[in-house]
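Why this split exists: single-chain examples teach little about how molecules sit against one another. For that reason, every record in the complexes split bundles all components of an assembly together and asks for one structure covering all of them. Below is a record exactly as it appears in the raw files.
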Amino acid sequence: MNVVDALRLVFGTIFVLFLPGFAWSYVFFNKDEIDWIERIALSFGLSIALVPLTVFWLNYLFKVKINLMNVTITISLLILIPLLIIKFNLKQRFRELKWLR
Amino acid sequence: MVEVNKLSDLMDILSRSFSQLMVIYAVLIFLVTLGIISKYTLHFQLFALILGIIGVIIIREKENVEFRSCWMILPIFVASMIRIMPYIDNNIPLGYDPGIYKYIIEKYWEGLPKIIPEDLDNWIKSGHPPGLFILTTILHLYGFNSFNLYVYLFIFFNVLIALGIYVACKEIFCKEVAIIASFFFSVSIVQFQTFWFFYYKNVLAIFLALLALYLLKSRKYIPLILIGAVVGAIHRPTFLIFIIAYLLYMIVERNDLRQKLLCGLTILALALAFYVPAHIQAILQPLKPLIELEIGPGTFISFYTYQYSSLYYLPLAIIGMMIAVRRGNINPILFWALITGVIVYFKIIFFNRFIIHLDVAIIMLAGAGFYYLLRYNKKVGMIALMLLASSSFWSVYKGAMHAKPLIDDEELSTICSLKNIEEDAYVMAVTSYYSPWLLGYSGKKVIAPGLFDYNRWNYSQWRTFWRLNDGEKAAEMLSIYRKPIYIYIGKNDRINEEKFKHKSFKKILDKDGMKIYRFGGAQPNSS
């Protein structure tokens, strides 16, 4: 394995398996609510759940083609949306969805 | 007054006996690990049970014990090291299943731009839910090849279970329990066996199920729905345990009953949706053998072997479980342990494979047991912890040192060379030992006993074929396939080869115990 391949794997792992969950973990858990180990575990867990779920539904329901470009846009949105939720202070509203009351 | 004194004397005797017995037990287990005494010298399971029962009676927390979070680096490091060791001078994946995973992973890639290919083999649809393969397909877009996916990523997912144990234990018990339990996971022989057997879906599903139980306990329902649903899309047996534990916990812990019910139903609906495009028979098909009680034990260590593999933490698990019950800490892990314990002990369904789940629960409860012991008597607790942890570490280290793949380089390259035979030819595995390897690495349609889509013989026909001397009869049996067949006989295959002397068969290869015979069609120009 050369350096470029290794970097690609590291980037792929972080981008697909860590960042989406990391961003969403701040929506579901406040900064001091959990420690750093829990944050890391949740980041991986949420990413492993969110990314396949979203890609599956986009492809199955909306017939979005699965290629590098579309998946990159999807994952980028999965990272961006929680950042917007945090930015516009919508966390509490998001956590207390009406049907779950 | 006299009775109170008698009780106090009895407790004092029990307390001293417990401390002494705990140290003796830890020393004996250490000696067993070093091979100085045999594990059959004593009924260690009984010893563990007695220790557990006395422990529950006398342990009262006195001292304060605190670990810093940075100690979590140790289990992460040990778990990674133990799992990397077999790959230091070896490029062949461990276990029986890598060929099967390689085949499915690549089949999903071929189906792009659809995330679930339409032309999946029936055996994939019925036995392999799409969750893991959707993820591996996405990672493939970012440069992961099949080797990265089934070696590096598999090691990574294995290590993640330590984090899963940490978060679940921290929520249910405390940080100290979480760190101890994570360490025992990293040195668990059973968990290393799971890695060796290459139970990929199982490993990933256990990590996610632990996170889901953590989210259930901490009442975070939205992430719980997401993670719970994906457990269902990855591994059905783990999902079954998770859902039953969820249900029992919901009945006992009635806070947010409506939310939990809605959340559970949403998890089921979302998980089911993954099966709709291609895998619907995966849900319907297991019902038949379940009704007819045809599901076997599953390939893994037996309960008998497990009793010896878990001696490093069994008494502490009993203590952890009983004290949690005594304190009213009724949590999802107790239900997880109870369900898997019942399945394994009473041999209900797939019982050997549920030992993996049972072991995870036992490790977590043992973490609690060690913590209570440390708080009761720090000195005895530390001696027991050090001796039992180092014994378990030594056992798993030896296991990792000697872990070898099921086939060698030479055999794998011979199997890979089958890619060069005629396009429409079949490859036949005469036993199940080589079937997954031929499937994953030959690039051809594989006929194997009782596996995949192309086998057209039942067990008795296979038995006839294995024992047959008559080449004429063997040729007649094989002629139903109507295409050339390359019969692979590996170093570990034992089959009567007399029949292959018949003119219908041509020996293509005979090297170091490996043989390939060609049957049918026009004979190729060269081998």
